[in-house]
Amino acid sequence: MTTSIPTPTKRELAEASMRRSWFPVARLCDLDKPQTATLLGVSLVIYRDGEGRISVQSRRCPHRGGDLSMGEVHQSSIGCPYHGWEFSSADGSCSRIPSLADQGKIPPRASIATYPAVERFGHVWTVLEDPIRDLYEIEEWQGLDLEWLAADPIDSSVGVGVTIENFRDVAHFPFVHKVSMGPTPEVVEPLNVNRDGLDVWMDRPLDAGSGDWANDGDCMMRYRCSAPGLASITYHYEKLGRRVVAGFPSPIDYEHVKIFWGVANEVGYRGADLEECLRVEEMVYLEDIPIVEFIEPREIPWDSEYQEFSVPADLFTLNYRRSFTELMNRVEDGSHVNQFV
């Protein structure tokens, strides 16, 4: 008798693809003490040990369930606050049990899961399973000396896909961003959108208008997103240089994200400083949140469980969905990236 294997739904593929993609879990500037994160239901502790190594590990002590984020960081380990068991920052193996007279009797399987830890864009990034994509490399940032300022993360009760679509949508500006952007046209011009695999981009001029964005004048913007979870705008001012805002929603679960984000200025940028750029961009983020949190469904309806209609202004969104679908296809066909970055 042959047992058929059920075909996974697109939602299941979307979640599986995110478990094999890179997400930020902490800001580098916060690692003076252990940080906590939940990534797709997995509870993590992130810390820098006494040797300077950054570790991303399971937060639960396997002895009696203590929360390691409350423990003490040692030279090359982290200790549990409950009974002091120590776990190596390199591989998660138990390296010391204070109550044992003979440390040679440490249970050989006593360990905590340890995940890759990569520093990029002012944040610590990790991946839960064998990655199917590299950590993001942004073409327009190549060769630029960027100075990053990581913002306070923002909690948002929607999924990664809905969050990225909100970042990259331009038709909502006149209705949601009246304060930060000032009056903007309701009619959206034809969009020249490009896609190459997991990456989607378009160029669009910025008319600074009368909002808080007006201080630095007009510029050309490169909008970009990359599946599953990076969205950026690179502003190119002819006389000032380049600056960046980028968002990296990290899924606490399938329908709930913590938005890590930040701004960067090209070294020598002659416009507003990083703190002012962050202030202006944060206005935009915080205008979005009250609207986005009531979107239904809270994640892209991959299995067409909700009816949707699209117009030409949605061209960037539709191409992002194609890029995400390509990522899901990598899960189905078993392709993967063999090396951690």
UniProtKB/TrEMBL annotation:
Which keywords describe this protein according to UniProt?
Answer: 2Fe-2S, Iron, Iron-sulfur, Metal-binding, Oxidoreductase
Answer yes or no on keyword Iron-sulfur: yes
The domain of life is Bacteria
Q: Which Gene3D superfamilies match?
A: Naphthalene 1,2-dioxygenase Alpha Subunit, Chain A, domain 1, Rieske [2Fe-2S] iron-sulphur domain
Q: Where is the Rieske domain?
A: 22-126
What are the protein's GO molecular function terms?
2 iron, 2 sulfur cluster binding; metal ion binding; monooxygenase activity; oxidoreductase activity, acting on paired donors, with incorporation or reduction of molecular oxygen
Known Pfam families for this protein? Rieske, VanA_C
| Enzyme class, first EC level, given as a word | oxidoreductase
What EC number(s) would the UniProt record show? Answer: 1.17.1.-
- PANTHER family annotated for this entry? 3-KETOSTEROID-9-ALPHA-MONOOXYGENASE, OXYGENASE COMPONENT (PTHR21266:SF60), IRON-SULFUR DOMAIN CONTAINING PROTEIN (PTHR21266)
Record's protein name = Iron-sulfur protein
